[in-house]
Amino acid sequence: MAEVPEHLLQRSRERRKALGLPVPGEEEGEAPAAADAGGGDAGAPPPPPTGGGGDAGPPTDGADGAGGGDEGGGGDTGGIPAHLLERSKRRRAALAGEAAPAAAAGGGSGTATAVAAPPAPTATGPAGHTQRLLTVVKSGSIQQTRAEAQDKVHVWPHLLVIEFASILILLAAVTIFSALVRAPLLSLSDFNKTPNPSKAPWYFLGLQELLTMFHPMVAGVTIPGVGLGLLALAPFIDKNPSHKPKDRKFAIAVFTMFIMLWAVLVIIGSFFRGAGFNFVFPWNDGIFFEL
Amino acid sequence: MANGNGSGNGNGQGGRERVAAALEKVDEKVRGSQAWTAIFRPGSIYRRGYTDSPRNRSYVIMNNVLYHLHPVKVKRHAVKVSYTLCLGGLSFFLFILLTVTGIFLMFFYRPTEAAAWSDIKTLETAVTFGSLVRNMHRWAAHLMVLSVFLHMCRVFYHGAYKAPREFNWVIGVVLLLLTLLLSFTGYLLPWDQLALWAVTVGTNMMGYTPVFGSSVKYVLLGSNEISGDTLLRWYVLHVLLLPFVIVIFMAVHFWRVRKDGGITGPL
User: A245 and B193 in contact by Cβ < 8 A?
Assistant: First the structure.
């Protein structure tokens, strides 16, 4: 049960004072209790409109009586459309006819106008209205959405611990490897002494390998350019929305071939090319490769 | 600590208690001080201490600028090492390691034809940890090319480039290219035979770019052939321009990972 906001209670008190009605909070000192009681009734059928005993009935006014929030309260008028007034009257007549608190009252029409039926009001607004329409909510406009429960874990400690451990392992591996293996530093560069073979850095050796087969423009510019372009455009070429490997056999096959082709070219360029960039077997002629 | 302060066995127990009380007092004073509360934000575990609770687990992430790269919670499968193999994160870590070791190297290196090679030689022989740090820089650089490449393969095989992550894949390809360029520009800097001729082979290919071939080559080399101008140019590219650009792309890359709903999967 939602609590009635303070400003609404305040408004209710002021209005009651203005209308000359007893103010519950000040006289009995139990405004919250009254609000709760009123709110608890929100789902129940409104009392029959025939109880004519002035203020003797349940709290009828403003926020006190309508703690549920749905029920528009207020002593004076609001512009209630004529057809709604008509319907309200008909409903009251029907209820009075049944003379039993119908369980479905107020909810059957599919609109949540929820009229707080007052017992023969002592004071009414200009048009004789005793309640004000706040809003009409069409039944179809309310949608229940439920967030799908996701299986989530806290980043600390679950992820950070793994990251920290993997970083430490990598750092240790790099440090130990660096302590054991020296980075190459050959003799001072000499423009007049071309080493044989001259090789590009290993990640460009695939391109250098292509250079043996194609015109330099094709091997050095066209093929890497088109390759990188296709790679960047992969998500726009592969329109298949599935992530499951069994649905993506073609894409996986193409990509794997692409990668394998590149890896093979790099390996050949690195280990199977000797003096004059001629094909050699590393187990016969040694390795011509510097990192 | 108690043993250090206690005067003997007889009042060892009492001394320990007194030390504990004093420590607690100091702790209270430090945590209550204005400097402490100014440094650590409200909710920081350094203000209130850490006890394991969902709320504090969230605060650990929310009140730390580095951890704040992460959301407070991630999908359960996303923390499985077998899923990501940590490749993206380790690539980032290698970049940080390369930045740190690179800054160290910059103190001992001048990018001129006359000084470059001998500076490296001096670094290797006369600077404390010089050789180790240079080795780390070189091996971590090769490793980063490898890990970025493998990260790309991992992402492809998980189909993680598909909507809504298409653009982040494109950024990833740019990052791969920038990584290669960073490695390649660094390759020239030792100014030894290996550097000179590897870069010669590499840049000769760029000269074959249609229409703009010779201009591209001239802009890259700062002259018609590799020279001291090339060394300076590639040094600036290597230590300043390319890291600057790659950091921007990395920021967008990481940001998009979160905005696109974390990593993909489970398959």
Answer: no
